[in-house]
Amino acid sequence: MPINHSPFTTHNSQFFTHFWRFAGSFSVRTKIMGIVLALVVLLGVGITVQVRGVLTQALEQRLQEQSISVARDVAARATDLILINDLFSLHQLLVETQLNNPDVRYAFVIDPNGTVLAHTFGPGFPRDLLAVNSVLPTDHHQTVLLESDEGPVWDTAVPIFDGQAGVARVGLSEESMLATVSALTGQMLLTTVMVSAVGIAAATLLTWIVTRPIIDLKRAAEAVGQGDFQQHVTPWAGDEIGELAESFNVMTADLAQAEQERVEREHLRSQLLEKVITAQEEERRRIARELHDETGQALTSLMVRLQMVNQQCPLPDIKTQLDEIRGLVAHTLDEVHNLSVELRPSVLDDLGLEAALSRYVHDYQNRFPLEVDLVVIGLEERLPPPVETAVYRIIQESLTNIARHAHATTASILVEQRNGRLRAIIEDNGVGFMRGVGNQNGRLGLYGMRERAELLNGTLTIESEPGRGTSIFVEVPL
Ligand SMILES: Nc1ncnc2c1ncn2[C@@H]1O[C@H](COP(=O)(O)OP(=O)(O)O)[C@@H](O)[C@H]1O
Ligand SMILES: [Mg+2]
Hints:
The protein is α+β, with helices and mostly antiparallel strands and 478 residues long. Among the domains are: 69-175, PAS domain (Beta-Lactamase); 256-344; 352-478, Histidine kinase-like ATPase, C-terminal domain (Heat Shock Protein 90, 2-Layer Sandwich). It is built from eleven helices and ten strands. The chain has helices spanning 7-24, 28-83, 87-100, 129-132, 175-225, 240-312, 316-343, 346-350, 353-367, 385-406, 444-455; strands spanning 104-110, 116-119, 142-148, 151-160, 166-173, 371-377, 410-418, 421-428, 459-464, 470-477. A five-stranded antiparallel β-sheet has the order 2-1-5-4-3. A five-stranded mixed β-sheet has the order 6-7-8-10-9. Strand 9 and strand 10 form a beta hairpin. The longest helix has 73 residues, at 240-312. The radius of gyration is 56 Å and the shape is rod-shaped. The structure holds adenosine-5'-diphosphate and magnesium ion.
């Protein structure tokens, strides 16, 4: 049964991808700082809100109770004064009550008919206050919360002498309670800000401690990437990052050793290659000379002998046969000569690169239907023999390749010596390199050309596009 991916899974994974991309875009420092700050602020604000809530509730409860006890006290002490109609003392009692209790906003006493007997309002008594709270004679008390211009007020009404002498009313303001709560809130928020500051300082220190070895590692890794294997990072601590540093050091040490082995092998390889190439040149030179001196001489004297025999022979039949044989020998002599030149032209040793190239190009044009343009600049003096041989062989192989692969109609060769460097450019107007060709196994021509250039600390670059011909640039220091 196919498993249905629920839309939530896709949605979630998308969310996490976005989240990680977002979180990952900040530096470690910012992340740690963010976590610390968020925790401190959350904790600070959370505790403040909670404490504020609990405290407000407790204080309100107390204020309410206080309002009741003050009102009951006033009611008890007012009874006699009302009965003897001592309104002055009644007023004194109310003023005193207010003086003794700073939370008391007002206090007044009304008789059973609703007439105000005494109050603490000074000249004007707010009449609408009478209607907002009332109490039955049978009740113990009645408390309501009023919203006044000066904040909430707990108003308690208590019947005096079971209501027969009237009602005592007392209002306790929440003002001072609210001031206490906001002072506490302010203090707690200040503490939060201070702890945040300490948290930021601690986070900065922490990230510095944590990221310093990572930054070291990053720098070292970049250097290693650039080929500097001598990098060593100091493990600052025995933690995971310290272990990473240790592993990094082991890795660079291994890399350094591998690199050293590679350099040694490379050195050995070029030494070997140089030996092989030199030996090959030597062998070619020897065979070329042998062909020229021994075989060529032998064939020449054979021709001279045949000529003599031919002159002395009276039989016309034999004479024509001898002529044919002489033609064959002459052809073989030509072949031997060509072979010897191809192997190692003595002009290269005797007259130098320019002469050898001119000769080679001349012969080449006789052999292939191709226009070759040779320009040599600045080669008045002889070059070091290894350079002459290498450049000659590179051009020889290039021209052979052009004849074999390029289907070109013209080729041009430029050899120039300037500023202590020898440059050669071999161009053709042929089909160019086909994609993927040229680095096939077993194709040693191009490889050999490059090796010869590199053995002389030079370079060889090939520029080619299908259908656009080929250019080979060689540069060798002298
Ligand atoms: N001038 C050129 N034009 C087009 N293709 C070339 C040219 N020179 C070399 N190539 C391509 O590069 C390949 C490798 O050349 P090379 O290493 O000399 O090997 P080989 O000549 O034995 O094929 C050739 O097979 C040919 O496809
Ligand atoms: Mg070739």
